[in-house]
Amino acid sequence: MHQHIQKIQEASAPYRDQIINHKVYSVIENIEDLSVFMRYHIYAVWDFMSLLKALQNNLTCTSIPWFPVGDGETRQLINEIVAGEESDIDQDGNKKSHFELYLDAMEQCGADTTEIHTFLDALKAGKDFTAAFDTAHTPQEARDFVNFTFDTINSNKAYLQSAIFTFGREDLIPGMFHAIIEDMYRSLPESISIFKYYLERHIEVDGDHHSHLALQMTSNLCGTDEQQWAEAEQATIESLKSRIRLWDGAYAELAKKKNLV
Question: Does any domain span residue 261?
Answer without folding.
Answer: no
